[in-house]
Amino acid sequence: MTGDITTMKVDAVVNAANSTLLGGGGVDGAIHRAAGPQLLAACETIRRTKLKKGLPAGKAIATTAGDLPAKWVIHTVGPVYSISEDLSHVLASAYTESLYTALYLGARTVAFPAISTGAYSWPMADAARIAVEAVHSLAWELGTDIDEVIFVAFDSRAEAAFREALRNRGPLTR
Question: Rounded to an integer, what is the distance from CA 40 to the centroid of its chain?
Fold first, then answer.
Protein backbone atom coordinates (compact mmCIF):
# COMPACT_ATOMS: atom_id res chain seq x y z
CA MET A 1 0.00 0.00 0.00
CA THR A 2 1.05 3.59 -0.44
CA GLY A 3 1.16 5.36 2.88
CA ASP A 4 3.05 6.75 5.82
CA ILE A 5 4.81 3.97 7.69
CA THR A 6 4.91 6.08 10.85
CA THR A 7 1.11 5.87 11.14
CA MET A 8 0.81 2.10 10.74
CA LYS A 9 -1.07 0.35 13.56
CA VAL A 10 1.06 -2.80 13.56
CA ASP A 11 3.11 -4.59 16.16
CA ALA A 12 6.43 -3.73 14.50
CA VAL A 13 7.52 -1.09 12.02
CA VAL A 14 10.78 -1.72 10.20
CA ASN A 15 13.11 1.24 9.92
CA ALA A 16 15.43 1.50 6.92
CA ALA A 17 18.16 2.81 9.18
CA ASN A 18 21.75 3.76 8.67
CA SER A 19 24.41 1.95 10.66
CA THR A 20 24.59 4.66 13.36
CA LEU A 21 20.93 4.09 14.35
CA LEU A 22 20.80 7.77 15.27
CA GLY A 23 18.40 9.00 12.60
CA GLY A 24 18.94 10.38 9.16
CA GLY A 25 16.92 11.18 6.08
CA GLY A 26 14.05 9.43 4.34
CA VAL A 27 12.21 6.72 6.25
CA ASP A 28 14.80 6.76 9.04
CA GLY A 29 14.35 10.46 9.71
CA ALA A 30 10.56 10.24 9.49
CA ILE A 31 10.44 7.38 11.99
CA HIS A 32 12.76 9.17 14.41
CA ARG A 33 10.77 12.42 14.17
CA ALA A 34 7.42 10.68 14.66
CA ALA A 35 8.64 8.40 17.47
CA GLY A 36 10.06 11.26 19.52
CA PRO A 37 13.06 11.41 21.83
CA GLN A 38 12.46 7.97 23.38
CA LEU A 39 13.54 6.29 20.15
CA LEU A 40 16.77 8.25 19.91
CA ALA A 41 17.52 7.49 23.58
CA ALA A 42 16.96 3.76 22.98
CA CYS A 43 19.22 3.83 19.92
CA GLU A 44 21.92 5.73 21.81
CA THR A 45 21.84 3.08 24.54
CA ILE A 46 22.25 0.31 21.96
CA ARG A 47 25.21 2.14 20.43
CA ARG A 48 26.87 2.57 23.83
CA THR A 49 26.33 -1.06 24.88
CA LYS A 50 25.64 -3.65 22.17
CA LEU A 51 26.65 -2.08 18.87
CA LYS A 52 29.56 0.26 19.50
CA LYS A 53 30.59 0.06 15.83
CA GLY A 54 27.05 0.41 14.53
CA LEU A 55 24.58 -2.00 12.96
CA PRO A 56 26.02 -3.90 9.98
CA ALA A 57 24.12 -4.07 6.70
CA GLY A 58 21.74 -7.01 6.56
CA LYS A 59 21.28 -7.21 10.34
CA ALA A 60 18.41 -6.03 12.54
CA ILE A 61 17.76 -4.92 16.12
CA ALA A 62 14.62 -3.75 17.90
CA THR A 63 13.75 -0.86 20.17
CA THR A 64 10.59 0.51 21.67
CA ALA A 65 8.54 2.65 19.31
CA GLY A 66 8.20 5.81 21.34
CA ASP A 67 5.21 7.83 20.14
CA LEU A 68 4.46 5.61 17.12
CA PRO A 69 1.27 3.53 17.12
CA ALA A 70 3.45 0.41 16.72
CA LYS A 71 4.87 -1.46 19.73
CA TRP A 72 8.39 -1.81 18.34
CA VAL A 73 10.73 -0.40 15.74
CA ILE A 74 12.96 -2.95 14.10
CA HIS A 75 16.00 -1.19 12.69
CA THR A 76 17.77 -2.73 9.73
CA VAL A 77 20.47 -1.47 7.42
CA GLY A 78 20.23 -2.25 3.74
CA PRO A 79 23.21 -2.24 1.41
CA VAL A 80 24.15 0.59 -0.90
CA TYR A 81 23.39 -0.49 -4.47
CA SER A 82 26.43 -1.40 -6.54
CA ILE A 83 26.57 -2.27 -10.22
CA SER A 84 29.96 -3.97 -9.72
CA GLU A 85 29.05 -6.22 -6.75
CA ASP A 86 25.90 -8.30 -6.22
CA LEU A 87 24.66 -7.42 -2.75
CA SER A 88 21.15 -8.81 -3.20
CA HIS A 89 21.81 -11.38 -0.45
CA VAL A 90 22.49 -8.52 1.99
CA LEU A 91 19.25 -6.79 1.02
CA ALA A 92 17.34 -10.07 1.43
CA SER A 93 18.98 -10.52 4.82
CA ALA A 94 17.72 -7.10 5.95
CA TYR A 95 14.18 -8.41 5.42
CA THR A 96 14.69 -11.88 6.90
CA GLU A 97 16.65 -10.65 9.93
CA SER A 98 13.87 -8.14 10.57
CA LEU A 99 11.31 -10.94 10.47
CA TYR A 100 13.40 -13.12 12.79
CA THR A 101 13.53 -10.16 15.18
CA ALA A 102 9.76 -9.71 14.89
CA LEU A 103 9.25 -13.40 15.68
CA TYR A 104 11.51 -13.11 18.72
CA LEU A 105 9.44 -10.15 19.96
CA GLY A 106 6.16 -11.98 19.38
CA ALA A 107 5.02 -9.48 16.75
CA ARG A 108 2.10 -10.69 14.64
CA THR A 109 1.98 -7.76 12.19
CA VAL A 110 4.97 -6.08 10.53
CA ALA A 111 5.23 -3.08 8.19
CA PHE A 112 8.25 -2.73 5.89
CA PRO A 113 9.45 0.24 3.86
CA ALA A 114 11.27 -0.25 0.56
CA ILE A 115 14.71 -0.82 2.09
CA SER A 116 17.74 0.63 0.24
CA THR A 117 15.67 2.34 -2.46
CA GLY A 118 16.18 5.92 -1.29
CA ALA A 119 19.63 7.31 -0.60
CA TYR A 120 21.15 3.84 -1.14
CA SER A 121 19.90 3.91 -4.78
CA TRP A 122 18.69 0.32 -5.18
CA PRO A 123 16.43 0.11 -8.28
CA MET A 124 12.83 -0.12 -7.07
CA ALA A 125 11.65 -3.09 -9.15
CA ASP A 126 14.67 -5.18 -8.18
CA ALA A 127 14.40 -4.20 -4.50
CA ALA A 128 10.71 -5.12 -4.47
CA ARG A 129 11.44 -8.50 -6.06
CA ILE A 130 14.15 -9.26 -3.51
CA ALA A 131 11.93 -8.14 -0.61
CA VAL A 132 8.95 -10.23 -1.67
CA GLU A 133 11.10 -13.29 -2.35
CA ALA A 134 12.87 -13.00 1.02
CA VAL A 135 9.62 -12.65 2.97
CA HIS A 136 7.92 -15.48 1.06
CA SER A 137 10.92 -17.78 1.44
CA LEU A 138 11.14 -17.25 5.18
CA ALA A 139 7.39 -17.70 5.66
CA TRP A 140 7.57 -20.94 3.66
CA GLU A 141 10.59 -22.19 5.59
CA LEU A 142 9.29 -21.42 9.06
CA GLY A 143 5.54 -21.42 8.71
CA THR A 144 5.83 -18.27 10.81
CA ASP A 145 3.51 -16.96 13.47
CA ILE A 146 3.40 -13.60 11.74
CA ASP A 147 -0.12 -12.95 10.50
CA GLU A 148 0.52 -10.01 8.21
CA VAL A 149 3.43 -8.35 6.45
CA ILE A 150 2.66 -5.01 4.84
CA PHE A 151 4.97 -3.38 2.32
CA VAL A 152 4.37 0.35 2.80
CA ALA A 153 5.37 2.24 -0.33
CA PHE A 154 6.15 5.96 -0.21
CA ASP A 155 4.62 6.65 -3.62
CA SER A 156 2.54 5.02 -6.38
CA ARG A 157 5.65 3.99 -8.34
CA ALA A 158 6.96 2.02 -5.38
CA GLU A 159 3.54 0.51 -4.72
CA ALA A 160 3.31 -0.61 -8.37
CA ALA A 161 6.74 -2.27 -8.12
CA PHE A 162 5.74 -4.19 -5.00
CA ARG A 163 2.38 -5.20 -6.48
CA GLU A 164 4.17 -6.50 -9.57
CA ALA A 165 6.67 -8.44 -7.45
CA LEU A 166 3.82 -9.95 -5.45
CA ARG A 167 1.96 -10.91 -8.64
CA ASN A 168 5.06 -12.52 -10.10
CA ARG A 169 5.81 -14.42 -6.89
CA GLY A 170 2.28 -15.74 -6.53
CA PRO A 171 0.44 -16.74 -3.38
CA LEU A 172 2.13 -18.40 -0.46
CA THR A 173 0.69 -21.89 -0.31
CA ARG A 174 2.00 -25.12 1.17
Answer: 18
Give yes or no: 28 in active site.
Answer: yes
Domains of the chain are 5-169 (3.40.220.10)
Q: How many CB atoms lie within 10 A of CB 17?
A: 28
Q: What is the per-residue pLDDT across 147-160, written as a single tens digit (0 to 9) for each? A: 899 999 999 999 99
Among residues 4, 11, 28, 145, which one is catalytic? 28
Q: Which residues of 151-171 are buried (b: 16+ CB within 10 A; e: fewer)?
A: bbbbeeebbebbeebbeeeee
**pLDDT tens digits for 20-73?**
999 999 999 999 999 999 999 999 999 999 999 999 999 999 999 999 999 999
60-64: strand order across its sheet: 60-64, 72-76, 12-16, 109-112, 148-151
